Amino acid sequence: MSSMTSIVSKPHSWTEQQQRDFQTRGYIRLRGSLDGSALTELRSWVDDLTSWPEMPGKWMKWFERDGDKRTLCRMEDLLPHHEGLRDWCYSATLTDLVSSLMGEKAVLFKEKINFKLPGGGAYGAHQDAPAFASYGHHYHITAMVAVDPATATNGALEMGPPCGRGTILSQRSDGTLSGEDEMSWRLEPLDAGDIIFFDSYVPHRSHPNQSDRSRRAFFITWNQASLGEVRQQYFADKRRLFPPECERQDGVDYGAAAATFNLGNPIR
Ligand SMILES: O=C(O)CCC(=O)C(=O)O
Question: Does the pLDDT value for residue 3 go beyond 60?
Fold first, then answer.
């Protein structure tokens, strides 16, 4: 397990134009944020994490299922177990970048890896805000950090029209957006090492991975520090209400927690 902290994001501050773009569109893409050695290290972390066995009470692993076949879909609650990742997620570089987009001090809310391996499923159109509304929070920013290139064929993120803070769009019963077909969507292909920062109101979705290449990415989310640090509470609640597969009990229906903990996801 690496404890290096060499992973940095570039640039270290936003231009006024970038700040305006983020406010107008609800997201901004940074190309080439991680240099070659940082990307190599990030990839080795993901390879490490992927190899860790399922262990109740530790890192959380969820799978997609196709009959008896299961494919790794997601890992969460990683920081207590990985020093390098913890140092990076709490680094001043990342926190300051997010805080300046947020307009106030940001604090880490949660971290995960979405694997989207070949054949991995789609993410339905959704806003994050309704799923993140617990704990009295109103606004979050997430960084999608591309570990692999994200393309039209392996299910890159698509962004919908910006909504502005506080606007919650009409939803289907599963929390996905009922107006999805009337919206214009913009595909955001990424090179490995690119980062998209997006707010919790901008609609987004992604198609299945129809290629033979993985589309792995970190998703790191921050909330306003003024509204409290709840990361540990969030993962305790999630572990209780929507546990990873190895902590599930037969006969329990975990569907009730899906709108908060599994919104639009291919995990079943
Ligand atoms: O990984 C993706 O393509 C979408 C991620 C997402 O929106 C989510 O995990 O809620």
Answer: no
